[in-house]
Amino acid sequence: MKVSGIDATYYTVKDLDKETKFYTGLLGSGPTFHQPDFVSEWTFGGGETFGLYKTASENVMPGGTAMFAVDDVAQAVKDAQAMGTKMHDEGNVTDTPVCHMAFGEDPEGNQFILHKRKQ
Question: Would you give the DSSP letter of residue 38?
Answer without folding.
Answer: T
